[in-house]
Design goal:
The chain is α/β, with parallel strands linked by helices and 480 residues long. It folds into two domains: 274 residues, 3-Layer(aba) Sandwich (Aldehyde Dehydrogenase, Chain A, domain 1), CATH 3.40.605.10; 195 residues, Aldehyde Dehydrogenase, Chain A, domain 2 (3-Layer(aba) Sandwich). The protein contains 16 helices and 21 strands. The strands form five sheets. A seven-stranded mixed sheet has the order 15-16-17-14-13-18-19, with helices on both faces. α2 runs antiparallel to α5. It is globular, with a radius of gyration of 23 Å.
């Protein structure tokens, strides 16, 4: 059993203000697999005070950018060396299938490398020559650290969410307080151990597992300069309100209800096999999952049959089983929430193709749901509009390309999406019409050099690459 009875505050393992430890339970059978201290407001005060002192003292902030790159490169190497341990911890506490947590490790490397490359090429200081001969003054434009960053992440992909924030924030010279979900206390405790080995200056980084109330205390703290949040749209609205009232910088990566457009010329078998990963990755507990499948009316039943065959072929079971594709949901309340949505879909009149609200046979002791597919879905139905965050897919018919684009855009969200076509250039033309932040064509993986984020209620700001790095900086212009 893994136990973290101290908190990682300001680079040091410190006794928590509340000594009571939280039981961390396995989603597979709800047994206790670990215990961990949880931060309270008093712990937040200590972490933020240390972060503020470190920033004002300036040791890390004034470290040359290429030296900061070298430190974060060392951290990335440590993480790579411990990839199997990280994957195992996430599967144990999240219920994510082992294939997913291990396959995601190279992605973390690519994500970090994109930030490191961006930092090496970033315009930390540039000189602008005068554009008007009558005003012969030049301007020095600097990109400087924002200050103290509160990074708040969800439970579903903890390492990816954490590193997508702490790496660029640290590369820019900020101090960071990372608030993680209680469910991820074990994997994020291990993250803290890796950060400890890197040897960042005192106060520059803290990692605090905590509940929502403590999270709100952190983002409301007067000494926090920027909030970087990934999570639900509802929570994002609350954080945006706090940030607006206090004029904090804020970036929000929120929910999604992404569409996969299967165009008439696409090979249905290839497209549906691609949706095995695009729609059902991480047990369906993913903000970028393409859970609305849009199929041409002439090929509708062919798509329905192919999706049914795919979903029924996927093994549901223990995360550590190498044959498992879909594991348990993270908590009993999340399990019940998804089962409730399946009941809603049935009551709305959608056709239940496969699955249902029943718990898979033999898995009643865990947080399991039966992967479910609905057909004959109208885009106005709740199961087509609301983020379910589980292995539930809806298949919607469209008449022509304009109709497909209209349906895809008829959503309060705009985070991700996909287009499938035999003609890549035509797929690109369709992608240009979609109001969403990230689109894949024919199952291409999301890149880390370009910006990632959402339109509409899917968020504000972007992550990854140079654009993501820039969100942790302020502009300063000096005219000479």
């Amino acid at each position: 059993m893994t136990v973290y009875d101290r908190l990682f505050i300001a680079g040091t393992w410190t006794a928590p203000s509340d000594p009571e430890l939280l039981d961390i339970r396995s989603p597979h059978d709800r047994s206790v697999i670990g215990r961990a201290a949880q931060a309270q407001p008093a712990d937040v005060d200590r972490a933020v005070a240390a972060a503020r002192a470190a920033f004002e003292e300036g040791t890390w902030r004034e470290t040359p950018p290429l030296q900061r790159v070298a430190v974060l490169r060392q951290f990335n190497a440590l993480r790579e060396a411990n990839a199997e341990r990280i994957a195992s911890l996430i599967s144990a506490e999240n219920g994510s299938a082992g294939w997913f947590t291990l396959a995601g490790q190279p992605g973390l490397t690519r994500q970090a490398n994109a930030y490191l490359k961006a930092a090496e090429q970033f315009g930390w200081e540039e000189t602008l020559e005068p554009s008007d001969p009558a005003a012969p003054f030049r301007s020095v434009v600097r990109r400087e650290a924002v200050g103290v960053v509160a990074a708040v992440i969800p439970w579903n992909s903890p390492f990816s969410s954490a590193t997508s924030k702490i790496i660029p924030a640290l590369l820019a010279g900020n101090s960071v307080v990372l608030k993680v979900s209680p469910e991820n206390s074990l994997s994020m405790g291990f993250l803290a151990e890796l950060l400890e080995q890197v040897g960042l200056p005192e106060g520059v980084i803290s990692v605090l597992p905590a509940d929502r109330e403590t999270s709100e205390y952190l983002v409301s703290h007067p000494d926090v300069d920027k909030i970087a949040f990934t999570g639900s749209t509802r929570a994002g609205r609350r954080i945006a309100a706090i940030a607006g009232e206090q004029l904090k910088r804020v970036s929000l990566e929120l929910g999604g209800k992404s569409a996969a457009l299967i165009l008439p010329d696409a090979d249905v078998c290839t497209a549906v096999q691609g949706l095995k990963f695009g729609s059902l990755l991480n047990n369906g507990e993913s903000c970028i999952a393409q859970t609305r499948i849009l199929a041409p009316r002439a090929q509708y039943e062919e798509v329905v049959d192919a999706v049914k065959e795919l979903v029924e072929s996927l093994k549901v079971g223990a995360p550590e089983d190498p044959d498992t594709f879909i594991g348990p949901m993270i908590r009993p309340d999340q399990q019940q929430r998804i089962r409730d949505y399946i009941e809603i879909g049935i009551k709305e009149g959608a056709r239940l193709v496969t699955g249902g609200p029943q718990i898979p046979e033999g898995l009643e002791n865990g947080n399991y749901v039966t992967p479910t597919v609905f057909a004959d879905v109208d885009n106005s139905m709740r199961i087509a509009q609301e983020e379910i965050f589980g292995p539930v897919l809806v298949i919607i018919a469209y008449d022509d390309e304009d109709d497909a684009v209209r349906i895809a855009n008829d959503s309060e969200y705009g985070l991700s999406g996909g287009v499938w076509s035999a003609d890549t250039e035509h797929a690109l033309a369709v992608a240009r019409r979609l109001r969403t932040g990230t689109i894949t064509v024919n199952g291409a993986p999301i890149g880390f050099d370009g910006p990632f984020g959402g339109f509409k209620n899917s968020g504000i700001g972007r992550e990854y690459g140079a654009v993501g790095l820039g969100t942790y900086t302020e502009y300063k212009t000096v005219t000479l």
